Amino acid sequence: MTALVEVASPRPERMSKPQLSQALLHAQLMLIDRADGSRPTAEHGRQILLSCARAVMQLWRDEEDHEREKKVALIGKMRKLRDDLRADKALLARMQAIHDRLPA
Predict the structure, then answer these.
(1) Neighbours of 37 (CB within 10 A)
(2) pTM score > 0.90 for this model?
(3) How do residues 5-51 score in pLDDT, each as one tens digit?
(4) Which helix (H) or strand (E) holds 3?
């Protein structure tokens, strides 16, 4: 029996339709395509369901990791912009101080 990608998650509603379709099709093929031609056992069915659940969980973890990486990158950009703004404000304040000291 070929194993599905290890995955699982408590939120199946977040899985995309193509991902669900692929996991279900793979599970169906695993039930039908037995090398020895025997009928699947209850244990075999249980293993298939566990494998599907693990695959779903991994897909969700990957998605959450990607979202987390995007947030971290965005926070980094925001901090850089904040630091740049502070530097610009400091430069502007120095320029204003110099301007104020110049004779009119």
Answers:
(1) 6
(2) no
(3) 434 443 555 666 677 677 677 666 666 656 666 666 667 777 777 77
(4) none
Residue 90 is assigned to a structural domain of this protein: yes
Give the chain's length.
104
Q: Alpha-carbon dihedral of residues 61, 63, 64, 70, nearest 10 degrees?
A: 140
| CB-CB contact of 27 with 4 (8 Å) | yes
End-to-end CA, the chain:
88
Domain that holds residue 42: 12-101
- 13, 4, 15, 2: which is closest to 61 by C-alpha? 15
Evaluate whether 19 touches 63 at the Cβ level (below 8 Å).
no
